[in-house]
Fold this sequence. Notes:
Elements: E1 16-21, H1 30-40, E2 43-48, H2 58-64, E3 69-70, H3 72-75, H4 83-87, E4 92-98, H5 100-108, H6 114-121, E5 126-130, H7 134-138, H8 140-151, E6 155-156, E7 160-163, E8 171-175, H9 179-190, E9 204-209, E10 214-217, E11 220-222, H10 229-240, E12 244-249, E13 261-264, H11 268-279, E14 284-287, E15 294-296, E16 315-317, H12 321-327, E17 333-339, H13 344-355, E18 359-363, E19 376-377, E20 380-382, E21 388-390, E22 394-395, H14 396-410
Parallel strand pairs: 1-2, 1-4, 2-3, 4-5, 5-6, 9-12, 9-14, 12-13, 14-17, 17-18
Antiparallel strand pairs: 7-8, 10-11, 15-16, 18-20, 19-22, 20-21
Bound molecules: cytidine-5'-triphosphate.
The site of cytidine-5'-triphosphate has 14 residues, from α12 and β17.
Amino acid sequence: MSADAxxxxxxxxxxxxxxxxxxxIAAVKAPSALRRLRExxxxxxxxxxxxxxxxxxxxxxxxxxxxxxxxxxxxxGPQPGAEHLLLAHAxxxxxxxxxxxxLSRAALxxxxxxxxxxxxxxxxxxxxxxxxxxxxWLHPAVxxxxxxxxxxxxxxxxxxxxxxxxxxxxxxxxxxxxxxxxAALAWGLLTPAPQDSHDLQGRRVVVSAxxxxxxxxPVRFISNPSSGKMGFAVAExxxxxxxxxxxxxxxxxxxxxxxxxxxxxxxxxxxRDAVMEAAGxxxxxxxxxxxxxxxxxxxxxxKQPKVAEEATLRLVPNPDILAExxxxxxxxxxxxxxxxxxxxxxxxxxxxxxxxxxxxxxxYPTQENTAFGGDDNQVTLVRPGGASEAWPRMSKLEVAHxxxxxxxKLLPPE
Length: 414
Ligand code: CTP
């Protein structure tokens, strides 16, 4: 921290998290986020926008932080106009409950209030934790601002799917991430990870994600609970490392990530067509999709009524997309995922050989909060020869980056 920093805490070596609390209903969670950030190891500073103070109080913010609250009123205090520069000496900025307006002020480079002027002045990582109505979040104006901020290497956490805070609109995408998750990610971002490199610059990466749906009739289908989170994490990590990404996704409850081509499919046959088309010029294909192995031999054109006590369903196998890619591999790097309940490494190695994949990440459906639906994953990298490496439990984004680091080693030089 430099000599002109507002808090020259020579004796306090903890990194500084500057929390900007914006004006959304989620601002009520800001004091809790401040406490979690402190528990994670940060010393905290806090700015509240004028709108934020409609939802939370100065006292609850300043008591949760390690310093007095900064607002537009304090901006023109004893050192008029300099507060944003002094506060900018932080190690991490976390924008909590960020709504469309703060995102747009930041994307436009406004300096019309303390929060936006400080965002213009910082040189440290910025983590946005948005919260707003789903319709606002998905509006192209907001998504364009998010894409611009991402291109400046700003980080985003959420919004998540869940109940909306206001007007009984039910569930949707727009809920703010939980304070524990915010603190964990902010701490993780302090350590520069390999993802800050651009080792996939100019490479074309195809990622499949989510489940497939095999329709029996117009309203019934066979599927599985894949959330798509692992594949989306791989696609976002590849994009952040400079790749041109095509994400091919089955039906999931996740927004299309900006900065890549996203194609939506339902059945395994549609997935096969989309993957084979996109893979034509790809350097790397990562198959995280949970593809249904079978589909109905006949798909009824109309909803089938109940006719008897017992019914028999005739299934036919779906094409194995990874194996098909493996059959025409060339220099393309192929990565698969496998879920096994027993003899995992041997079975995954045999699968990698059979499908001609460079490696497979193996996970177990029985592990708590991993694989289907969870935010973490615990995987073992298995190579066709049987060599394996168990990775510790980590977030799906970290698994994605580690996967890409391994895959990048196998790419032929450009
Ligand atoms: N996969 C694929 N096409 C399929 C089935 C699976 O491309 N029809 C891919 C998956 O995306 C994953 C890998 O193959 O990357 C392993 O999938 P898994 O279903 O575990 O393998 P299977 O070959 O179906 O083996 P099992 O007999 O264990 O189900």
